[in-house]
Amino acid sequence: MKISTFEATLRYRALTIVLVFLCTACVPIERTPNRTMGVSNGPDTVFQQPVSELVPQLVGATATGNNGRVGNELVFWEYQLAQGNKANFYACIVDEDVNCEARVRAICPAGGDESVRNVVPGNVRHLDCKAIGIAATGELRPNCEDNEKVDELQVGLMQCR
């Protein structure tokens, strides 16, 4: 059975489209989680030392209480610096599955400038919940294991525009 050039071209194009689709479907697309506000715990629950020891630019700074997070892996706290401008002190868990670069950029919706970056140990809380569970009376998170451990955190200072 002989195939015409036209049929061969159509088959080649169809095969190419299928291969491109399959390759695209196999590559995971990383989406940066949304920025949310309302974090109530301060950095004193994460770090043993004052934030001014971690980031010297925070000496004399005052917490504004305008705190938030980007996903579960990055948390930030806003400070009024001694010079009068505002900056966000952040902590992001160092993990191969977490893109801290993208999360740091998401702290400031209109963009910003990062002035400091270090890696320091900090207390990390991991909540592992099962989809189905039995709740006891007064239990806030049924079928969840709450683990806290010391882990490496990328910390820095981000000033929004």
Features:
six-stranded antiparallel beta sheet, 161 residues, extended, single chain, alpha+beta, 6 strands, 3 helices
- Gap between N and C termini, in Å? 68 Å
Q: How many separate helices? A: 3
Physical arrangement of strands within the biggest beta sheet: 1-2-3-4-6-5
Strand content: 35-45%
What count of domains describes the coordinates?
Answer: 1
| Broad shape | extended
State mean pLDDT (0 to 100 scale): 81
Low-confidence stretches: none
What order do the SSEs take from the amino end to the carboxyl end, as H and E? HEHEEEHEE
Mind explaining what this structure looks like?
With 161 residues, the protein is an alpha+beta fold. It has one domain (33-160). The chain has three helices and six strands. Strands 1-2-3-4-6-5 form a six-stranded antiparallel β-sheet. The longest helix is centred in the first third of the chain and has 22 residues, at 5-26. The termini are far apart. The mean pLDDT is 81.
Describe the protein's topology:
Blueprint: H1 5-26, E1 35-37, H2 51-54, E2 62-70, E3 74-80, E4 86-93, H3 100-105, E5 112-129, E6 144-160
Antiparallel strand pairs: 1-2, 2-3, 3-4, 4-6, 5-6
Summarize this, please?
This protein is α+β, with helices and mostly antiparallel strands. It is built from three helices and six strands; from the N terminus they run αβαβββαββ.
